[in-house]
Amino acid sequence: MTGAQTNKSICVYNEIGKLRTVLLHRPGQEVENIVPDYLRRLLFDEIVYLEQSKREHDQFADLLRDEGVEVVYLTDLMEDILGDQKIREEFLKEFMIEGKAVTRGLQEALTEFFGGLSPKDMIDKCIAGVRTNELKHIKPKSLGDMVKNPYPFYLDPIPNLYFQRDPFASIGSGISLNVMSNETRNRETLFAKYIFNYHPRFQDAKRWYNRDKTHPIEGGDILVLSNKVVAIGISDRTDPTAVERVAHHLLSSEEGFETVLAFDIPKKRAYMHLDTVFTMVDYDQFTIYPGIEEPLDVYSITKGKENELHIRYEYEDLAVILKEHMKLPAVNLIRCGGGDRIAAAREQWTDGSNTLAISPGKVICYNRNYITNEALRKNRIEVLEFDSYELSRGRGGPRCMSMPLIRDLL
Ligand SMILES: NC(=[NH2+])NCCC[C@H](N)C(=O)O
C-alpha cells in the first residue's frame, strides 16, 4: 500500500518512505519579537532576519511540492477550527493561562483584543506574541495589573514554531503529543492538542503520550526507523521516563512495533535532539555526527512478560546494533563533515546531520553544509539543497522544520 492510498490521517512507519504529506509552519512576526535580552530563554543564539528566512522557508516548501508532497500549514489547520466560537473561547482561555496572562484586567483586555480578529489573524497573533504597547486600556483589577512591569510582552512570542518536528511526533497511525523541556516551547503543543482534538481530518489519530504528563519528550528525539523499530533519544530535551512511557504504549498497541532503541546522547545545546546528530537517509544508510559515537549508550526496550518492558544495554557499536535490530545485511554510517573534526563540528552546528528524507536515498539539506552534502553524494544519496543563511540561526535543519503526516510503507 502506498501512503497516497491510506485512509488514515497519520501514517508514519518509517523515516525514508516516499513522503506524501508534511506539516510546516512558515516563520512570521514571532521572529521579529526575538530580542537580545531574551535570546537564550527563547532558545535562539542570534536574531533572525525575517524576510530572508521566509524566502528560505518558501524554497523548502517548493522543493517539497515539486516532489509531489502535500504541504499543510499549521496556521491553516488552526484557522479551520477557530471558526467555531466555542472552541475559540476554550482555546484562548487555555492559551492565556499557559502564557501566564492570568490577572483579570489583562485577561479581559486580551479577550477584547482577540475578539476583534478573524481566525487567521488571531492565530498569527497568538504565535507572534502581544507587546505591551498593543493593548491600550487595561482596567486594573488585580495587583498584577497595577504594579509596574518593564517586561515588553503581555504574551510571549513563540519563535520556535517553525521547528514543527518537536511539539508532537507522528509514529505509526498515532502521535506523541509532547511535553516540552523548556517553558518557552510549551504552548506550541497546545496547537497540536486542539488540532488533534477538534480538526475533522485528524480524529482517528491514536495517542502515545500526552502533554499533561510530567516528563519531557520532544519530536526531534523520535525516529521511526522501520515498522518494527523506533529510536528515541535521551537528550537535553527528552527524559528516560518519557521514553519508557512511549515505549510502553507503542509496544502494547496493535501497531506492530517490536523494539524501541533508546539512544543516550550527551546533554548539550549543540545537539539538543537525536536528529541533530543522527538521521536516516536510505534503507541501510544514516548520517551521524562523529562527536557522539564515543559517548553513545544504546538500550533496547522490548515487550517482556506480563505487560512489563524488557530493557537491555546494547554492548555493540552503533552500526552493529542497527544492523541487528533492523535485520539488515550491513549498515553504512555517513559522517557529518566527511569525518573531518573541524568541518564536522562546524557543519553540525548548522544542522549538517539533520537531513529530511523524501524517499529512500533522496534527502533535503541546507546548502551551506557542503562537505557533509558531498559525503552524502559520494554514498549515492541524492541531495536537494536550499538556502540556509537565516533559518539555520535557530539551530534546526530540514528535519527539525517538518513533521511528516503520511509516508509510503516500505
Ligand atoms: N528537531 C530539532 N532538532 N529541533 C531543533 C529545535 C531548535 C530550537 N531553537 C530549540 O532549541 O528548541
Radius of gyration: 21 Å
* Percentage beta strand: 15-25%
CATH fold type of the largest domain: L-arginine/glycine Amidinotransferase, Chain A
Q: Give the termini distance in whole angstroms.
A: 9 Å
Q: What is the number of helical segments per DSSP (H or I, 4+ residues)?
A: 11
Please write the CATH class name of the largest domain: Alpha Beta
Subcellular location: Cytoplasm
EC number: 3.5.3.6
GO molecular function: arginine deiminase activity
Enzyme class: hydrolase
Short synopsis of the structure:
Keywords: Arginine metabolism, Cytoplasm, Hydrolase. By secondary structure, the protein is an alpha/beta fold.
Structure description:
The protein is of the alpha/beta class. The chain is 28% helix and 21% strand. It has eleven helices and 19 strands. Strands 8-9-10-13-14 form a five-stranded mixed sheet. The longest helix is centred in the N-terminal third of the chain and has 17 residues, at 50-66. The protein is globular. The model has no long low-confidence stretch (mean pLDDT 96). Residues 43, 160, 163, 165-166, 185, 220, 272-273, 275-276, 394-396, 400 line the site of arginine.
